[in-house]
Design a protein that fits this description.
Helix content: 10-25%
Structural class: alpha+beta
Number of domains: 1
């Protein structure tokens, strides 16, 4: 029975992947997680659920005219608008105060609006480390294998997360 339970859990992890954008001076994406999460560790630092819930607003995958994944737009609401001030000096983030933050996975920022209006709302929980650093987890079921390849080849820092 234990073996079957482990297999079911493994299948569920594949069905509900998430990527986590660690809002550090250099963008780091944590991989290897599925949602929902309550806490995770990256590079020895623990991030805990910040208490805003599993769904904190809509998000759009930002895409170039050829469909290539460029980043993610995270729509702010009254409870999360503080992130605009938190992220405004990060070089890979574009901020529209009180509306959204855009996290770019490379230097390319020319996205195609028609391809970048997903209004996804699967999972976008906020996490906070003891030192005040924030991270946003995004449900990534909509991303393709090609999208994940783009993330791997983008040159940004990636890290394995563990629960």
């Amino acid at each position: 029975m234990k073996e079957q339970s482990s297999s079911v859990q493994s299948d569920r992890s594949r069905e509900r992947p998430c990527i986590v954008a660690l809002l550090k001076p250099r963008l780091t994406l944590a991989k290897g997680l599925s949602w929902p999460q309550r806490a995770f560790v990256v590079d020895g630092k623990e991030y805990r659920d910040a208490g805003f819930g599993e769904w904190t607003g809509f998000y759009d995958w930002l895409r170039a005219s050829n469909g290539a994944l460029l980043g993610v737009r995270y729509w702010l609401d009254a409870s999360t608008k503080f992130l605009a001030g938190y992220a405004r000096n990060l070089p890979y983030v574009s901020v529209d105060p009180s509306r959204c933050i855009e996290v770019y996975f490379s230097d390319q920022r020319a996205f195609e609006p028609k391809l970048s209006a997903d209004q996804a709302f699967l999972y976008d929980a906020l996490f906070r480390a003891a030192d005040g650093e924030y991270a946003i987890a995004f449900g990534a079921e909509e991303l393709s294998g090609a999208d994940f390849e783009i993330l791997e080849q983008s040159g940004m820092q990636s890290a394995e997360a563990r629960v």
